[in-house]
Each structure stands twice: as C-alpha cells, then as structure tokens.
Design brief:
The structure is a homodimer. With about 325 residues, chain A is an alpha/beta fold. In chain A, strand 6, helix 9 and strand 7 form a beta-alpha-beta unit. The first copy, chain A, contains twelve helices and twelve strands. In chain A, the strands form two sheets. A six-stranded parallel β-sheet of chain A has the order 2-1-3-4-5-11, covered by helices on one side. Chains A and B meet through helix 4, helix 5, strand 2 and helix 11 of A and helix 4, helix 5, strand 2 and helix 11 of B. Chain A binds a DNA duplex (16 and 16 nucleotides) through helix 2 and helix 4. Chains A, B: It comes from Paenibacillus yanchengensis. Chains A, B: One of its GO terms (molecular function) is DNA binding. Chains A, B: This is LacI family DNA-binding transcriptional regulator. Chains A, B: Pfam families: LacI (PF00356), Peripla_BP_3 (PF13377). Chains A, B: Keywords: DNA-binding, Transcription, Transcription regulation.
Amino acid sequence: MATRKEVADKAGVSVATVSYVMNNKQGVSEETRARVWQAITELEYKPSYAARSLKIQKSNNLAVFINYLGDPFEAGLLNHLEERAREAGYFLNFQTFSSETEIEFRHQFAGRVDGLLLIGQTLQAETLQTLRANNLPIVSITQAASDHSFDAIADIDWEMAMYQLLTHLYEQGHRRIAFMENEHYNHPHHYRKIAFVKAMERLQLTFNEQYFLQGGGRLEQAQQQMYSYLRASSSEKFTAFVAASDLMAIGMLTACRQLQIAVPEELAICGCENILMTTQTEPEITTIHYPRKEVAYAAVDLISKLLQQQSAPSYKISTELVLRKSTIQQVSLV
Amino acid sequence: MATRKEVADKAGVSVATVSYVMNNKQGVSEETRARVWQAITELEYKPSYAARSLKIQKSNNLAVFINYLGDPFEAGLLNHLEERAREAGYFLNFQTFSSETEIEFRHQFAGRVDGLLLIGQTLQAETLQTLRANNLPIVSITQAASDHSFDAIADIDWEMAMYQLLTHLYEQGHRRIAFMENEHYNHPHHYRKIAFVKAMERLQLTFNEQYFLQGGGRLEQAQQQMYSYLRASSSEKFTAFVAASDLMAIGMLTACRQLQIAVPEELAICGCENILMTTQTEPEITTIHYPRKEVAYAAVDLISKLLQQQSAPSYKISTELVLRKSTIQQVSLV
DNA sequence: TTGTAAGCGTTATCAA
DNA sequence: TTGATAACGCTTACAA
C-alpha cells in the first residue's frame, strides 16, 4: 500500500497538500490538484482507515446487536440496515447479543464503533452506563420492554396494531384468545406481549397466566409447545392464538397440521411481522405488517443525525393488519 | 476515555510499562504489575483500537460478502460465522455484494479489514488482483462457479451430493428432471447447477436448455416462474424438479398448491441446503443437507490460519440426502 | 496557495 | 525490570 508520503513525493508537494486534495478542501490550485490526483491514481493510494480513525476519533463503524439471525424478520431488518448504512458511509458490525455475554460485551465497543443499533433488547443499567460513558449513541429498532431511554427509537405503534389484531379476532367471534410469547425478557418480542395484554384489557377480555405459552422465539420450541398444548386434554380450549412472531406462528401451524386440527375452523392462528413465509403456508397467516425497510432506514438516519450532533426525534409509525385465511372463517363462531 | 498516559501517571510508571502489563509481557515485577492493574481498573482504561490497528497494521475485522440476507440459508451461515469469529477475536462486517457495485466495492477494504470471507461469489479478475495487492486473504464458503483460486474454500462435495439426489429421483422412476436455477452467475447457486449438469450426464439422462427455469434465487420469482411453467400447456412435462435452493423449492411448492398439482404424485420437488422451513411445508421437502455450522467454523478457522501465515488447506466434506415426502411415492412411476 | 509540524494512542527497540 | 523515544499514517492549525 502506498502511503500519503509517497504520493506527496511523486507529485512534488507536501503531505498536507495531499490531504487537502483527498478531502476536497478548497484553496488548492487546479494545477496542483491535478498533479496530486495523478499521483494518487498511479500509486493506487488509499488512505489508511486506522490512521484516520485515530486522528479524527471516529471509526465509521456501527455495531448492531442482533438476537437471532435465524429469524427471517431480523435478517430482513439487517438487510435494509446494511443497505442504508452503506449509503451513509458506515460499516456494520453484527453482534449476536445475549444476557449471558452482556457483561464482557459492554467493553467491546469503545473506540471500535461510533454508535449502537439495538433490536429491542433490554440492557442492564450498568451496560447502559458504560456505553454512555464511552459516548456511544444508542438507537433501538423496536421498543424494548423496559423503558430505559435510549437516544432514539424507531418502531411501529405496537399497542395500536395489537388492538386492531385483537379487534379483528373479536369480530370473528373469539373470546378466549391466548398468546405464544418469548419468555426471554430482553428481547423485542417481549414488548409485543405487553401490547397484547393492554389490548386484551381494553377489549375487556379475560385472561390469566395460563393464556401464555412459551415459544422462546424459535420455531421448533413454538411447534413443540403447541403440540403439547393441543394434546393435553382440557375442558376449555382457546379458540385463537396470537404469536409474538411469525416464525412461532408457523411452528404452531405445523403442530396443528400434525394433530389434524383445522385452522381456522377449530383454531385461529396469527402472528406479527408479515414475513414472506406467512404467504407460503396452508393456510396463509394473518399478521401485523412490520415495514422493515422503512424502520431500518429511519434507524440509520437517526443514528447518523445523533453522530452529527443533530436532534433525532424517535420514529413511530402506525401500520396495517394483513388479513389472511388463518383467522377468517365463513361462519362466525358467535 | 482514559488513555494509556493517564494510567501511567496514576500508577507512577512509564507508558511502556503499561503496555507491557496490558499485553501480558513478562519481565514486569509483580508489584508494578499490580499497581498498574489497579490504575487500569480505576480509570476504566480500554486501549484504543484505532491506535493499535495503526501500529500493528491489523484491524481484527473481517469482511463477509453476502448475497441476500433474506435467504435463511445464508442467514444461518452468517449466524455461525459470527459465533466463531467472536471466539477468534474478530469483528465481522457483513457486506451485501452484487456485480453492479463490485467496482467501487473493491477499494473499500484495504486497511479496514484483515481478510475476506466470500459466499460462493465469482469475482472479476481485477477485483481479485486489487484484493491480492492489498494482501487480503480470501476464503470462500461454498465453491464459486469460476475456478479462480482463492486462498481456501470450505464447502460440501456438491458433485457427490447432487449425484446422490438425482440417483434417488432416478430410483423413484424419474427420467425427465428439470432444474430451477439462479441465473446470476456470480452466486453460490451457480455451482449447484454445474453439479446438476454433471450428475445428469453421469446418469445419462437427456436434457437441454428448456430444462432450466430461472428462479433468480428468490422465493417470489421461483414461485412465479413455476406458476407460468405449470400453466403453459406442453405435451411433455417434467416429472421432477430440483431447485438450486430450498427457498426456491418452497416457492415452487406453493405454485403447485395454487394450481392444485399434487406433490409428489404428479410432480416431485426437491431442494438444496436443508433449511428449517423445508420441514414446515406440506409435503415436507427432500433436500441436500448442508452442515452450516461445521462449514462456517471451518471457514473462520481457515482465515485465522492464513492470517497467522499458517497453511490452510481447503475443507470439503461429503454430506447426506434428507429424504422427505416431496419426492417419495408409494407407487413408483416406472 | 502550499509547507511545517504537533499530535492522535499505541507498540517495540534500545538504553539505562 | 523499567523508561525514553521513534515510528504507524493521518488531520489541521499555523506559518510562509
């Protein structure tokens, strides 16, 4: 790799001039500028990121805390995050986050990234403090369950969305509506449970802890839990299930097929997110649409602003229900 | 952020000594070592990555060229890559790669990452040359279609696997076997087509260009192409389809369901990779198992070795077929 | 319009 | 066993 010094020598100027040219500063004569560019091209000179970072105290790297790349919802979000980050000149470091590794984790980022993008995780107070001390702005995509204030949040209006979804089920005649949750509290799914509970209360529907199955956010576990639930003989069964994620909804649907439970006739199932796979199942799955591209772009824009000391108000949009066969019956239950 | 100088002052030693302690060099008295550690802890000192990178000319970052994060196969691979990279002390930069951006792309990495992890892409000769000039080792996960030699490759034995898959179809009575390809040549799917062609020849099965449908690697396109194919009236129809990816196989299955074509009775469908979703469809999909964790770990290990100037021989393992209902009939076609 | 030089926070060589 | 000090390659006053 050619260095700036070599370019300077070749062009017969000082190193400073090379910098001026590289950074498009004005006050350099056209003639010198051309000569310097020529040398740059010939030597295939590329500035050193490390040196530049050290000097300006910026890395142009952003860390993204992910929960599980095997979830298509998250992968889709990351896809768009990366897209937008590139436009903005950032490199992204994807980091799988879990509570077990949180403590060693929190010291990893100072000086290595300029900011953090979370996906609905709940951080320990001390982690938050360390990150703050290192002057790292934090933007969360999707609301975390605990409300420690990040610098900004980009999300949909979950309470509204969940209320709409439950209203739809209510109109279809459902009264006993259960929820497949993700029992890990520091996970974006957890806030969806909170929204579910609020919506149930608002509709004055009864529920208790029995109404919550633990799917762990994973398809396999959701499928297995649903299977157990369906096999357990119980006098009063639920008539509808909301899953905290589409992936879990898909697992539940498979459990129903295995046990020959008709969906939606015997049981309605719906999810959150609207991942592509919900259109490939039989029946297709009713869900809450989560506009991944829009939210991801907003999140990158927010953190860009924060890094330029601009104000960055949180972004929260309303969204739509996607009604599909898994909750729609010809004849209502009522 | 405290710097090394502050630590040195606080501990009453020189900056060099702090470095010795941080890097666990021997030759420092226990007493000084303790004093320095104390200062480090109290000041919450963390070494600066940028400074360190500049000095030792290493970033401990690796770039990963991805094709499409929306494909669960790739996302799964990345999940394991990240896992292993973390153990090895690397941060990963995921970069969506496409031919359109390849030219600007190739200058982005010098000095910013220590090496590259590809996922079956085919690079232009000049890109390869630039990367080489910058002394970046390149390891490819899955074989690229063109055989420019990377420093190492971690993959399964596609030719063997595809031959096994076709043999299975052959034994089920199929003779007219088509392939849903990904027409983008610089993509891992492309090598699977090559393996398919070889296996067809080995089994002495006839085929021509009509035998290839273009699915673009995406579920939506595969579904649509399959739909068109199925609707087009043709005297001689294929009896089996191999898709270059499971995602495309799923799209094809949906097209069949939409047109009420029975799988596997009227048409057999199978894929490659064995993503989780192939167990959630009706019928479940026969596929080639791709051990993502194993291959991903191997790839990170290979690049680690290369970065330590150790020899790193390519890794190629045989794999297994996963037989499921989408290709298995009670009564054979023969 | 261009050059000089200090400094970013490390590592590592050489002395002491 | 420890301390000075010269790089690493860049940015940016300030000087010329």
